[in-house]
Amino acid sequence: MRWTPLFLGLALLAGCDSATEQPTAEPIEGMDAKAGITVSDARLVLPVVDGRPGAIYLTLANTSDKETELAAIYLDGADRVELHESKMDNGVMTMETVDGIAIPAGQTVALEQGGLHAMVFGIDPADESATREITLTFADGDKTSLDAKVERVGEAAN
Ligand SMILES: [Cu+2]
Known about the structure:
The chain starts with a helix and ends in a 7-residue tail after the last strand. The chain is an alpha+beta fold. The protein contains one helix and ten strands. Strands 1, 2, 3, 4, 5, 6, 7, 8, 9 and 10 form a ten-stranded mixed β-sheet that branches. This is Copper chaperone PCu(A)C. InterPro entries: LpqE-like, Lxx211020-like, PCuAC_sf.
């Protein structure tokens, strides 16, 4: 029974430590969500070979009452991520860069193969991560970070 006071003392010390750490964790949690915007089904498709771009697909749902615009996506380690739109032009699939992707109030917009999508340049095709963190920046400056599932499908050139 002699160890009981010591044990209590340690428990109190541990309690103090976690209390002082709490404030530093809060700003990081705040970055993980943008009010009124839900991001789901985020995937990072790796290129088949080095030198080819990869792609990011995800779904954005705007549950707020005002339009939001996705301005950029950041992936650590990649040269750059561009927002693209695929279009049929005289029977040929082409794509062009877009400055931003509007998500109207109450609407859901999907970044998907053959439509709006994000293309990732300078990415390692041999990345063995199960997930990679991506950061979305909106036109109003808000940012949201989330994990994208890493896929190795080899259909990243659309
Ligand atoms: Cu593209």
